[in-house]
What does this fold into?
Amino acid sequence: MHAIGKLGEMGLAQWDEARHAAAVIGTVLCTGVRPRCWVRAARTAFVRQVLAIGVEPIGFVCALAVFVGISVVVQLTFWAGEAGQSQLLGPLLVAVVPRELGPVLINLVVIVRSGSAMTTELGILKINGGIRALEARGDDPFLQFVMPRVLGMAMSTFCLTIVFILVAFASGFLFTAWAGRGSRDLLLFVDTISNAVHPKDVFNILAKSILPGLFASASCCIGGFGVSGAVTEIPQATQRALTRSVAGLFVISAVVSLLTYL
It folds into this structure.
């Protein structure tokens, strides 16, 4: 009974954190459409976040996409040809790379790489009194710290997902053509992929890349601002924020798939 009670408490705590993150996301979206809220500090912070989250890791994302393209695209091309089902190559590639692997892998990269840094940065700022100093000057910490980070991570995740998908397909086609396991006609390969993409696939990619990015950044901001004591609280806050973000990623991905394809 004690274990069940602890599980219930943990579940309620996670539910409260999820509701808090949803409230933060809603506030950010409502605030972000107002031009007057984009003060100079908010614009600077947004650009900095896009550069740190969406530009700096492009090399790693491209390398990851190459390995995925060589392993997944090549195997699907080979086995579809071996089975005499070449007409299924396009739908298989779209189902595996853009629908599932791309958004999930990129969100994991962003959460691990940038989510932990975001929580740590805000936690140190909170402990050092930077938030109180900002409020004392009459500035809004939400506009300067939360809104740019949440929107910056969501936009960066979407852009990195598109880069990942394009590089994975390109590397897969080049390796398949070089190995002689598939067609060397680039236009035929592009036509095969484009014919397999439907409007619901576009919605799937948008939702699976943007929504987890919004949730993860909101959770990390909540974790950073939740630090109130010593610096030793930051690792625990970071761990909790990353755990919520990863769990939210898979829950959101599953829900989007169910709503889109069932």
Remarks:
- Residues 89-127 form the longest helix (39 residues).
- The radius of gyration is 21 Å.
